[in-house]
Amino acid sequence: MPITAASLLHRGVKSKQGKQPFFTPRPNAATLPEVLEDYPVARRDPAPQGSVLDYLDRKANVAKTSYKTRWEVATHYCGSYAVVGRCHSMHRYAKKINCGREWCELCREDTEARRLARWLPKVRQMSSMGYWVITIPRELAPLMRTKKSMRRFGKKVRLAFKKAGYQRGLTRWHFFGDKDHDLFPHLNVLVDGKWIHPGELEDLKTILREKIYPKYLRKRYQDKLVVNYSYRDTPAKIMHTLKYVARATFLQEDWDKELAEELFNFRNCAAWGKWDQAQKWDAPHDHDHAAALADLANGICPVCKTKITWDRKPTPTTQLLAQGAVQFCGGYYLLPKLRAPPGTRSSRHRKPPANHKA
Q1: DSSP string, 94-162
Q2: Banded model confidence at residue 66, pLDDT cuts 50, 70, 90
Q3: Sequence spans of domains, the chain
Q4: Nearby residues of 162 by Cβ (< 8 Å), 6 or more positions away
Q5: In this structure, what is the dihedral angle of CA atoms 177, 181, 185, 189, given to the nearest 10 degrees?
Q6: What is the SS3 assignment for 22?
């Protein structure tokens, strides 16, 4: 086959007509077969269409199976690890690391027990409790689907109660009701309370609505801006209300998956004011473990009342069970004391050597 100028340019060889150009020109359609003959590597059969589709399907399946939400990752390790702690008297405890989701069946009861235990020392400082419920109208419920909006509303509610004369209190969101699975956000508020005259109570509700909602919302949703109040005057009633507020209402993730993903790292419980008063009453007999669990939740040893120092690195729960850990409640374990290492006894308890002379 004769060598043409086009083939020489394609090979990168200088032609007799002139020097090699800066770029390689594309050969004409007439010379294309000749150029391909010079390069056997270019003569390849086209890839079958099926292999390309199989490759795309494999990439799609890998992307679909490898992606996990943050909650799914937390669920995989829920309860698999625990943190070990010890007090000054060498009493050892372990605390399971839970995901904390309301719809997690593995740790829901433990999370509710810990939540109740953290609030119990504060609630026991109340001789009587006032229980407020700030209900969001269903027409405004779509506005409460982000962490930012719920934090702002909760902050506004706490500021309104401060201006109304309440020096301290606790707040917690409930996302769903007991009747259906529709989004029904309402904020529970626990404060020092008493019986209030109906006329005075209506005036107080009006003040709270003015501090919480803007004017155009109060004008449009007059009867739907519900603010309920009730009071508890016995320890049994206070404990019942505390358990009711600390319970989980988002029981299934399928009820609202978008909201479930949004609630990741959302701090639902909040408090304001000083809680430095003496406790007014003791826990009921059916909640004897609540006081010990409250000490553990606040980092205090329930036996000697000293501070517990927790390890930084977690330990597998199976390893702790192999060491003889006994489950207490709320995801806490009681660990046996460590045996003193050999050779730490004093010299006067050691046996004298065989050749020792008295």
Answers
A1: EEE-----TT-TTTHHHHHHHHHHHHHHHHTT-SSEEEEEEEPPGGGGGGG-SHHHHHHHHHHHHHHHH
A2: very low
A3: 5-42, 73-118+283-336, 125-281
A4: 272
A5: 20
A6: coil
Pair of tokens at residue 91: 């009493």
Contact 21, 9 (CB under 8 A): yes
pLDDT at res. 23 = 44
CA atoms of 247 and 250, how far apart (whole Å): 10
125-281 placed in CATH 3.40.1310: yes
pLDDT at residue 284 greater than cutoff 90: no
CB of 28 within 8 A of CB of 6? yes
Cβ pair 265, 71 in contact under 8 A: no
Question: Within the chain, what is the greatest distance between any pair of CA atoms?
Answer: 117
Residue 188: its H or E element: strand 183-192
Q: If DSSP codes are grouped into helix, strand and coil, which group holds residue 343? A: coil
pTM, full prediction: 0.71
Q: Which two tokens stand for residue 100?
A: 């904390």
Residue 330: name the closest of 70, 40, 33, 118 by CA: 118
CA neighbor of 140 nearest in space, from 148, 131, 149? 149
Q: Round to whole Å and give the CA distance between 91 and 181.
A: 45
Residue with tokens 């702790």: 320
* Nearest Cα residue to 342 out of 350, 334, 353, 333: 350
Give the residue carrying structure tokens 């120092």: 309
> Side chain identity at 348, as an amino acid letter?
R
Tally Cβ neighbours within 10 Å of residue 250.
20
d(CA 182, CA 141): 10
The partner residues of 52 in beta bridges, in order of sequence, read none
pLDDT digits (tens, 9 = 90+) for 73-113: 555 678 889 999 999 888 999 999 998 889 988 889 999 99
